[in-house]
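FAQ: What does a ligand-bound record look like?

Like this one, built around biotin:
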Amino acid sequence: MSEIIFLKETSSTNDWLRNRCESLSDMTCVTAERQTSGRGRRGHSWETSNGMLAMSVLLKDPPDVSALTARVGLAVCDAVSELYSMLSEKAGIKWPNDIIIENHKVCGILCESVKIGDCINVICGIGVNVSQSEEYFRSVGLLNAASLKTLSGIELSEKKLCETILEKVSIRAKEMFCACYGEYKNRVINIGREVRILHGDNERRATAVDIAQNGCLICEDESGRFEVSSGEVSIRGIEGYL
Ligand code: BTN
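The answer part, i.e. the structure of the complex:
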């Protein structure tokens, strides 16, 4: 069983692992009740409220780094399916890895790599809305977010969810992306939709048409088909978040 380190407070669980990366073993997991500088994708900050699970997992020199972020998304879907069976079919992935249920974001994922010598280590940061109320999300203006508790009626501890996600990440991290490509594609909700591709201050409109074998999103506009890689890009719907 991998080790889970429980912290009351830290700046960011991703940074906590990054700073100790060399001395910690593969699959070390850290979780914190409060993050003072939690980070989201594309330089956004990430609020850690009561009822949110903030966890990070260290993968040391994983066998297949390609589309690892997609496999972490699948691992979260696996955990949700096991613990909240009524949400199993409803859990979708907004490419590359936001977990969406009934049009609401329940989880965000931030994977970051740390190169030490020839080894690429990956820190998988996962923030899950476990039990916050609708009122909470309204009060902080997060109208696209919801918790697993309000969506399922089931209240589980953050510890239980953390243990289950860790177990699923350890399985998915050993898998090659090609082995779960079909499963990933079935979960992705953007395919067939008009999207806005945000990169820095630039925006490009296109239709999301497929997932490539390397995990990239294949889009199409009047100039033809092109691949979008997850790096620093965000995808939005034409009218809003989805
Ligand atoms: C996103 O949707 O933008 C990704 C959010 C990732 C948040 C998690 S919470 C645990 C870990 N620590 C961080 O600072 N960020 C990730």
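Follow-up question: can I read anything off the structure? Yes, for example: The chain is about 25% helix and 35% strand.
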